[in-house]
Specification:
This protein is α/β, with parallel strands linked by helices and about 375 residues long. It folds into 2 domains: about 170 residues, 3-Layer(aba) Sandwich (Rossmann fold), CATH 3.40.50.1970; about 180 residues, Dehydroquinate synthase-like, alpha domain. It contains 13 helices and 11 strands. It has a 7-stranded mixed beta sheet, sandwiched between helices.
């Protein structure tokens, strides 16, 4: 895809035969074009903290003659509970939403995860549109058809595979994103570089500023990461095989998130998880030290952590065992056997796990 540059210019990434991810600058109004003509009502699920984003979306929908209802929810992971989902279902019921009406999620990944799950369950499925407002949501949560909420036992343990009508990614909304949140999203972008598209790494290394704020390479970085995920997801919607490569860095990353009670940003935990996976692959004879070092250097350019000392491996193993990437009682890790060449390491020797984890401890 050619990355758009001018305000209002639109680029598109097709996800299989299902939907488009619309990418550009100043394109929030594009959401109205994704709503079917049969719709009469739209629920906008948002956190109440992004009026400059929500208002253009609301006005575009109203201009199309739609009745717009606001579903304001808590920020961050506090939104992803059964209680919040139930409150939105109650709102849909009171507003007489039918199967032709639409849910729109405007916000970060927690909002798009929640909005998609609410839409998937209401009347056994109503249409929904994602308008992600963070880098992480644009390249990860809002694309791929995975929706869900958290439970006390773990993150995203309740959910559904449910594809949106489309996704609108307006890069201009990232201009005021806090630096740490911007970098967190770039962990998933760099992941795409390591597992599938080395051009991402070349762009990042050539223009590291675009990893920390909207810069010359940011739109192309995001577009390439979306394109990579779209290609994988279109071949494996329900994570039966190929899609597992998207979990690179996530087995340890999710365990770290759970240990930290989700106070650590997702991308920070995944960054540590990618270094762990690289160390594990190196100690298994799959990759050389230079590729491990490239993980550390690229993630450091984005301001992401590459070391970890807040828990022992033994403390994290129980959480890993509950992770969705485990089969039975056997741990599975996505690793590399070369740049852009992912594979799986099943049931690695505990000694290898401990050696790789020890390499994360700061010197």
């Amino acid at each position: 895809m050619n990355a758009p540059k001018a305000s209002g210019e639109v680029g598109r990434v097709r996800v299989g035969a299902a939907y488009d991810v619309v990418l550009g600058r100043g394109i929030l109004g594009e959401v109205a074009a994704l709503v079917p003509d049969a719709a009469r009502r739209v629920l906008i699920v948002h956190g109440g903290t992004l009026p400059r984003v929500v208002e253009p979306v609301r006005e575009a929908l109203r201009t199309n003659g739609l009745h717009v209802v606001d579903g304001v929810v808590p920020d961050a992971e506090a939104a992803k509970t059964i209680e919040v989902a139930a409150s939105l279902w109650g709102l849909l019921g009171r507003e007489s939403f039918t199967r032709t009406d639409v849910v729109v999620g405007v916000g970060g990944g927690t909002i798009t995860d929640l909005a998609g799950f609410v839409a998937a369950a209401w009347l056994r499925g109503v249409p929904f549109v994602n308008v992600p407002t963070t880098v992480l949501a644009m390249v990860d949560a809002a694309v791929g058809g995975k929706t869900g909420i958290n439970t006390a036992e773990g993150k995203n343990l309740v959910g559904a595979f449910y594809e949106p009508l489309g996704v609108v990614c307006d890069v201009e909304v990232l201009a005021t994103l806090p630096a740490a949140d911007f970098a967190s999203g770039m962990a998933e972008v760099l992941k795409a570089g390591f597992i599938a598209d080395p051009r991402i790494l070349e762009l990042a290394e050539g223009d590291p500023g675009s990893l920390r704020h909207v810069g010359p390479a940011t739109v192309e970085l995001i577009a390439r990461a979306i394109g990579m995920k779209a290609e994988v997801v279109s071949q494996d919607l329900r994570e039966a095989g190929l899609r597992e490569i998207l979990n690179y860095g996530h087995t340890l990353g999710h365990a770290i998130e759970q240990h930290a009670a989700y106070t650590m940003r997702h991308g920070e935990a995944v960054a540590i998880g990618m270094v762990f996976a690289a160390e594990l692959a190196h100690r298994s004879g799959l990759i050389d030290e230079a590729l491990v070092a490239r993980h550390r250097s690229a993630l450091t350019l984005a301001g992401l952590p590459t070391t970890y000392a807040d828990a022992s491996l033994d403390q994290l193993l129980a959480a890993m065992g509950r992770d969705k990437k485990t089969r039975g009682s056997t741990l599975r890790f996505v690793v590399l056997d070369g740049l852009a060449s992912p594979t799986r390491l099943v049931g690695p020797d505990p000694a290898l796990l401990h050696a790789a984890f020890d390499a994360l401890v700061p010197g």
